[in-house]
Amino acid sequence: MYKIDHRSRGLVSHGVSACAGCGLELIIRNVLDVVGEDTIIIIPPGCSALFSGFGKETALKIPGFQGTLENTAACATGIRRGLTSQGNTHTTVLAFAGDGATVDIGIQSLSGMIERGEKVLYICYDNEAYMNTGIQGSSSTPLGASTTTTPTGKSTIRKDLVGIAAAHNIPYAATASIANLNDMRRKVQKAKDTDGPSLIHIHTPCPTGWNYDPARTVEIAKAAVETGCWILYEFEKGRKVLNKRLKELKPVDKYTRLQGRFRQLSESDMAELQDEVRRHYESFIRNIDCQA
Fold it and tell me: Which residues contact 183 (CB under 8 A, 6 or more apart)?
């Protein structure tokens, strides 16, 4: 079991108005517990703006600010360089953004940040749509999922964010899930300690956008991993490391049937989704360099 660092406990105030069962709140509390109070955070508009707050109010007890959707990584770069020019190499610069602000609107500045080798820890909490503005589809929305802009189900597969970062030869990148907090916290620590840019892509179930009982958030996150819909791995020093090889994939409906956003899919649609998940998982397994 992970241990709470009491020196940083309470960096997120109680009573934040996130949705009941929100995976994001569990993530930000654990991430800040790992990185500690010697951290500056940059948050763009989105669900996590609940934590950065507005005006004189904030739910976080560390310095930071809310930028715009497209410039999170650029702002983090400026802060990092300003600190370095002052001789400060100990403060963690943390970018904390959703999938829309990362894989869509902010990917240009993220790409530049990685290419330049900036020492920034970038967290993408991925709830697989633009949840804060009405549940519109993003390029991280999975195949078949219904959103307000893909009401019959998204017809294309999602972007591979860690794969894009790996193409930049990033020193460290990883996927994570709230289904395994020990694994997530270990990866956050590794990312913090990396000499250069680091990225963690965290699967973030959303009861409001995915239409499920808020009490089942962790169950759904676990089902995503067990069915191969979310693969836990790391990219480090040019190598892909699988964190856990599944003996067999559970049927994809063990994951999708728990959520209303897949209810519109026909039997043939579900068969197509199952084939795509299996194809992607088997292709990934063939191309890993080692297993943790």
Answer: 176, 177, 232, 243
CATH number at residue 142: 3.40.50.970
The total number of structural domains in the chain stands at 1
Tokens of 258: 């728990």
Q: Domain containing 72: what range?
A: 23-291
* pLDDT tens string 35-46: 999 999 999 999
* pTM of structure: 0.94
Q: Which helix (H) or strand (E) holds 192?
A: helix 181-193
Say which residue, 13 or 92, is predicted with more confidence.
92
pLDDT attached to residue 1: 45
Q: Is 184 part of a structural domain of the chain?
A: yes
Residue 94 falls inside a structural domain? yes
Quote the pLDDT of residue 9.
56
Q: Mind spelling out the 3-state secondary structure of 112-174? A: HHHHHCCCCEEEEEECCCEHHHCCECCCCCCCCCCCCCCCCCCCCCCCCHHHHHHHCCCCEEE
* Residue 9 identity: R
In the sheet that holds 290-291, the strands lie side by side as 64-66, 39-43, 92-98, 121-126, 198-203, 172-177, 233-236, 239-242, 290-291
Asked if residue 223 is part of any domain, the answer here is yes
**Per-residue model confidence as pLDDT tens digits over 216-229:** 999 999 999 999 99
Q: Sorting pLDDT into bands at 50, 70 and 90, what band is 2?
A: very low
